[in-house]
Amino acid sequence: MTLHAELDLTRGAFHLTATVDVPAGGVLAILGPNGSGKSTVLGCLAGLLDPDTARITLAGRILTDSTRGVRVPPHQRGVGLLAQDPLLFPHLSVLDNVAFGPRSRGARRAEAARVARHWLAEVGAAELAGRGPAQLSGGQAQRVAVARALAGEPGLLLLDEPLAALDVDAAPALRGLLRRVLRAEARTAVLVTHDPLDALTLADQVAVLSGGRVVEAGPTRAVLSAPRTAFTARIAGLNLVEGTATGTGLRTAAGEPITGMLAEDAVPGEPAVAVFAPGTVAVYPEGQAPVGSPRNTVPATVGTLEPHGSLVRLRATGAGWAAGIAADLTPAAVAELGLDPGSPVRLAIKATTVLIHPAP
């Protein structure tokens, strides 16, 4: 079912203005820092919050239209909500929890039980039907919550960081389950997450919120591979430097030039960002000349050294655009260079690895 929402809401000092469009069967991931308005958007779509001005339609059916005084209550919207907390009814068995949706829509007990058993089997939890919620692990409870959300046959599924409370062993399995169910059922869904892996594996499109406004939007891989904001770059694991586009790259607010490759939509003289991966940043001890002739070099200080998979991620401090830059090194390279927090270094980045994109 196609979702279209135009939202305008003020709560105290916070103001949200956002437009959300999801095609039938599509999955939109909403990313953003804490306080950016992600959960507020879900609350408006679910009917739990009443925006000052809004128009929300699902498959052409009006759920909210402030100008016409239309506000369909949450239980009549055909919207399912899956949150971090499974919120299972503690006094009902697993089977009855999942059957609750069909029963609330008027299904007879036997039919509701049939639907519940179907969805429990779909999420790999059929053997849990007779248990109570207190007898379930966190991963099991969230599987049951997925089954309950889907058993209600929602036209729109809202996912509010459903994997955030799970341990590292349970989260991958549930992520795979959600991907399979969303694809197989062609469910229209909106996912709020802080994890780029959730966005990459589950969502077709991404919208990035900041300060109550959408600052980036588009296909998931395109947005995360070419971020336009510091937040998106950080969750995508990329470096980002802000400034103004020039004919050869970017000039920072302090006037420092960075040479790079301009994207087709980057316009010299307009605000822009330089984006490059930590793996493209070479690190040299102070006084040692960089190998080759990299166009971009800058003095820095080692701020932190942290494990990053099989590599060590160096986070730089210093004046100018070196501050916050990340570089990925092998443990052997860190030892050979004698790097420690506080060590003076020089960073070098080849111009061909730096992409210049318009700022939002």
DSSP strand content: 25-35%
Label the CATH architecture of the largest domain. 3-Layer(aba) Sandwich
User: What is the topology, as strand order, of the major beta sheet?
Assistant: 7-8-9-3-10-11
| Structural domain count | 2
Distance between the termini: 30 Å
Label the structural class.
alpha+beta
* Rg from alpha-carbon coordinates: 24 Å
Q: What are the low-pLDDT stretches, counting only 5+ consecutive residues below 50?
A: none
Q: Which CATH top level class of the largest domain fits? A: Alpha Beta
Give me the CATH superfamily of the largest domain: P-loop containing nucleotide triphosphate hydrolases
Q: What's the count of strands? A: 22
Overall geometry: globular
At CATH level 3, the topology of the largest domain is Rossmann fold
Describe the largest sheet: 6 strands, mixed
Number of helices: 9
Instruction: Return the average pLDDT rounded to an integer.
Output: 90
Question: Level of helix content?
Answer: 25-40%
Describe the structure.
It comes from Amycolatopsis cihanbeyliensis. Keywords: ATP-binding, Cell membrane, Membrane, Molybdenum, Nucleotide-binding, Translocase, Transport. It holds the Pfam family ABC_tran. The chain is an alpha+beta fold. It folds into two domains: 220 residues, P-loop containing nucleotide triphosphate hydrolases (Rossmann fold, 3-Layer(aba) Sandwich), CATH 3.40.50.300; 124 residues, OB fold (Dihydrolipoamide Acetyltransferase, E2P). 25% of the residues lie in helices and 34% in strands. The protein has nine helices and 22 strands. A six-stranded mixed beta sheet has the order 7-8-9-3-10-11, sandwiched between helices. The chain has a six-stranded mixed beta sheet with strand order 14-13-12-16-22-15. Helix 5 links the parallel strand 8 and strand 9. Helix 2 packs across helix 3 and helix 2 runs parallel beside helix 4. The longest helix is centred in the middle third of the chain and has 16 residues. The chain is globular, with a radius of gyration of 24 Å.
